[in-house]
Amino acid sequence: MKYSLVLASGLLALCSAAFAAAPAYKVLTKIKIGGAGRWDYVYVDSANHKLYVSHGTQTEVIDTTTDKLIATIPDTKGVHGIAVANDLGKGFTSNGTTNNVTVFDLKTSKATGTFNTGQNPDAIIYEPSTHRVLTLNGKSNDATIYDVKTGQVVAASVPVGGKPEFAQVDGKGNVYVNIENTNEVIVINAANATVAKRYSIAPCDGPSGLAIDTKKGLLFSVCNKVMAVSNPATGKVVASVTIGQNPDGVAFDDGYAFSANGKDGNISMVSETAPGKWDVVATIPTQAGARTIGADQKAHKLYLPAAEMGPAPAGGGRAQAVPDSFSIIVVGR
Questions:
Q1: Given pLDDT bands bounded at 50, 70 and 90, which one contains residue 2?
Q2: pLDDT classification of 155: cutoffs 50, 70, 90
Q3: From CA 213, how far away is CA 270, in angstroms rounded?
Q4: What secondary structure, in 3-state letters, does 278-308 show?
Q5: Quick one: pLDDT at residue 19?
Q6: Strand duo 68-73 + 79-85: pairing
Q7: What's this model's pTM, rounded to 2 decimal places?
Q8: What is the mean pLDDT of residues 40-60?
Q9: Please, are residues 304 and 292 in contact by the beta-carbon 8 Å criterion?
């Protein structure tokens, strides 16, 4: 009996340690950039202390140690996303207007070339084990695969069976992609340029942002008011969590998934609160319109692009960004 009580106490202590109270996050600062109020994804290069920001027709580079703008990559028209291959010293932007990718040098931030893609390349990601970059092309419903070492497109069009959104990699050759109009996650084998698997993430409707926990092998897809936590190995949704409205991005850091809820102007911080049970453990105020997000997993900071929005037009339609108000919201502990 005494042994059982001691064992039970020990298990309770382990559970308490595993599901400890969430750290408190808040807005630390805003990095003023200015210019046009058009943006999409950001990419955090923790190793080199850089933040890459898509910004309409150009891509900005910010030093995250000083929060200062240090470079601009011009002529990235309709840029959506940024990918970085640190092992090869190259970076890439997906240019939705011109249907191509700009290749740039990581040290100088200077463009070194381009390659063509499918229509409206949206998300872009580097798969390190194969040294390949994939663009997910929103209008042609396919992926373009480029070999960074050879500098050649190895697959111009890999059909994905729907409109692709954000992507993640596990470092083992698998590329995971949200398919927005079929409410699925697909798995692309980067080596042989094929869709190896697909599975439903319902009730997540219209998935956009995607994050990954490589240690536990879990994916986090965000839809309006819903975050689907899924296991790609089994093709099953393990949890559906109610979050804020209209998120377009989600990031993962230190056991927590953070959805950027653009309509609500906040972040839903989601964690596993008991074995197999996922909940919102905090709601972090940010700014209306802050809908995409990147995480610095070393500094435990979150970066959200946003602009101040003017009033909605009297006759209806979307509110426009206040001129020169574009900035990056920095959230941390």
A1: very low
A2: very high
A3: 13
A4: EEEEEEEECCCCCCCCEEECCCCEEEEEECC
A5: 61
A6: unpaired
A7: 0.93
A8: 98
A9: yes
Task: Categorize the per-residue pLDDT at 93 as very low, low, confident or very high, splitting at 50, 70 and 90.
Answer: very high
d(CA 219, CA 238): 10
Distance CA 168, CA 124 (A): 9
Of 149, 150, 153, which is closest to residue 134 (Cα–Cα)? Answer: 153
Give the bridge partners for 228, in sequence order.
221, 240
At 18 the pLDDT is: 54
Residue of 164, 173, 165 whose CA lies nearest to 194: 173
- pLDDT by residue (tens digit) across 72-81? 999 999 999 9
Question: Which domains, and CATH codes, for the chain?
Answer: 40-200 (2.130.10.10)
Contacts with 18 (C-beta within 8 Å, 6 or more apart), sequence order:
none
| Other residues' Cβ atoms within 10 Å of the Cβ of residue 239 | 16
pLDDT for 313 equals 82
Q: 174 to each of 2, 5, 187, 197, 214, how far by Cα in Å?
A: 49, 45, 6, 10, 11
Cis omega (within 30 of 0) for bond into 23:
no
* Closest listed residue to residue 302, CA positions, set 267, 262, 261: 267
pLDDT digits (tens, 9 = 90+) for 163-196: 999 999 999 999 999 999 999 999 999 999 999 9
Query: Whole-angstrom Cα distance, residue 103 to residue 90?
Result: 7
Question: What are the DSSP calls for 140-194, one per residue?
Answer: TTEEEEEETTTTEEEEEEEE-SS-EEEEEE-SSSEEEEEETTTTEEEEEETTTTE
Give the integer Cα–Cα distance in Å for 210 and 249.
7
Q: Which residues pair with 82 in a beta bridge?
A: 93
